[in-house]
Design brief:
about 25% strand; D-amino Acid Aminotransferase, Chain A, domain 1; about 325 residues; Rossmann fold; four-stranded parallel sheet; Dna Ligase, domain 1; single chain; about 35% helix; alpha+beta; five-stranded antiparallel sheet
Length: about 325
């Protein structure tokens, strides 16, 4: 029997998908990628391989999980296996610079951004590019919004990087980015499964930029705001602008991305800026319960359909 093989490094994040796969009676296997041995002289198993590797894997002690995944994906793809969110998706997951280049190539606007290599260059770069207004510091490789900080002055940035809360980015690369002021503190995250729009989520950013929608983020990541306040933190909406949706779907197709959450913000003039593509997307259970939706059920159904397609080809070949 062929299986769905789920490549990941976070057991807590896997639980909702595992439950959905089991409810749909789909055969699947857990590929936990922290370390391992892979015989590259032999072909990999048959089936569908779903890559859920996260850019934030290093924050859970899995420093080289993404690099291991890249190597194994090359092996799988070299043998013609069906990989959902393959090598190109992983490449964009772990580099916002490469994300922005790909988004701009698809005529999708991103915020003005400066790439900085070297902590000692940050203050001068901020003064050169963003002295007139607020700006954001973020790591090139992050995940869950970790390490994203808003500054209104260059001096505040200098105090931060000389302080105890500073942590260097795992790949040594920083981004300084214009702060896009929304008329209300909201961003929108558009969710796609099978390269097609599923729904969008409005996220209240009043408490900060760490925006992981999974309640499981609270496990070992207490700062991830997945709880409800006076206003729901996450609210599902059924649609976004048709033109933007079309550009996002074309972008995903061009880059071999099957499953993703794409985040954007709209300024007071109505201009839309896209600033993050998350190929290890999670869904907020409280928001889904209110809306009567289930992203994981949709995702499991998609993976099941892909497995059926692969199995038919294997049966025909045999």
């Amino acid at each position: 029997m062929n299986h769905i093989h789920v490549i990941h490094e976070n057991a807590a994040w896997l639980e909702p998908l595992a439950a959905a796969l089991d409810r749909q009676s789909l055969p699947w296997r857990d590929w936990f990628f922290d370390q391992g041995v892979f015989d590259l002289s032999r072909p990999p198993p048959e089936g569908v391989f779903y890559n859920r590797m996260s850019a934030s894997s290093h924050t859970r002690g899995h420093r080289f999980a993404a690099e291991l995944t890249a190597a194994v994906l090359a092996w799988l793809e070299g043998h013609g296996r069906r990989v959902v969110n393959g090598s190109r998706a992983l490449d964009l997951e772990i580099s916002k610079v490469r994300q922005y280049a790909a988004l701009e190539a698809a005529s999708i606007r991103t915020p003005d951004t400066a790439l900085v290599a070297g902590k000692e260059l940050l203050v001068a770069a901020a003064r050169q590019h963003f002295a007139a207004g607020g700006f954001i510091l973020k790591p090139n490789r992050g995940g869950k919004g970790l390490g994203v900080r808003l500054f209104y002055t260059v001096d505040a940035l200098g105090d931060f990087i000389d302080g105890l809360d500073y942590e260097p980015p795992v790949d040594g690369l920083y981004l300084l980015q214009e702060y896009v002021r929304a008329p209300v503190p909201l961003i929108t995250r558009a969710e796609f499964v099978g390269g097609r729009f599923m729904y969008a989520v409005e996220v209240d950013t009043s408490d900060g930029f760490e925006l992981c929608p999974a309640d499981a983020c609270a496990v070992g990541d207490a700062v991830c705001p997945a709880t409800e306040g006076p206003r729901a933190k996450f609210t599902i909406i059924d649609d976004i602008d048709a033109g933007l949706k079309h550009r996002y779907e074309a972008f995903l197709s061009a880059n071999g991305i099957d499953v993703a959450g794409i985040e954007f913000v709209t300024d007071s003039a109505g201009a839309v800026f896209t600033y993050d593509v998350n190929t290890n997307t999670n869904y907020n259970p409280d928001a889904e319960a209110r809306a009567g939706r289930s992203g994981m059920e949709t995702l499991a159904g998609y993976l099941g359909a892909e497995l059926k397609c692969v199995s038919r080809r294997c049966d025909a070949a045999g």
